[in-house]
Amino acid sequence: MKRFLMLVGVAVVAAAMYVAASPASHQSTGPTEKQFLALQKKVTALSKSLKTVKSEANSAVGFIATCLVSPTAGALPVSEFGDIHNAVPTFGYHYSADGTNFVFRPALDIDGTTTQGYLQIVDTSCVNTTGLRHRLTHSGGGFALARPERVNH
To answer: How many other CB atoms sit within 10 Å of the CB of residue 67?
Structure first.
């Protein structure tokens, strides 16, 4: 009987130690008011950021779907022709800035047989100075529109 009581006593002590050491036995005090307000401020800032990111992503997806993946958009196969590696080019496209002195210049050409790359074809309904500019600079720091210019030298 002594052995049985000793075993029960050891079991009671072990159970008491287990309960005292378990994480559930400690009462959580929770965050202080200062910690709670700081956390609330971070959550508010992150919520605003998330809203902005979602809006930007939706605008980008809309632009891609409307302007780059529409039935009238696509990819144009191009190749560069002309002798651009020699100091004095020997072949290419004839070009003259003044109408008298002609030089050979390289240029891109639509070429499906020896394609060197592709240019993105944008849906024509997307190309106007106000609509495209608005779509590309939605966040204020968007893509810059390049305006090609011919410069006579």
So the answer is: 22
d(CA 31, CA 23): 17
The answer to whether 72 and 115 have CB atoms below 8 angstroms apart is no
Q: Is the dihedral of CA 134, 69, 64, 121 positive or negative?
A: negative
Alpha helices, DSSP H, located in 22-151: 33-63, 129-136
Q: Which two tokens stand for residue 57?
A: 């992503």
Kindly give the confidence (pLDDT) of every residue in the chain, 153 residues in length, as a single tens digit, with 9 standing for 90 and above. Answer: 677 767 777 777 777 777 666 666 556 678 888 999 999 999 999 999 999 999 999 888 888 888 888 888 888 888 887 777 777 777 777 778 888 888 877 788 887 777 888 888 888 788 765 544 444 444 444 444 444 444 443
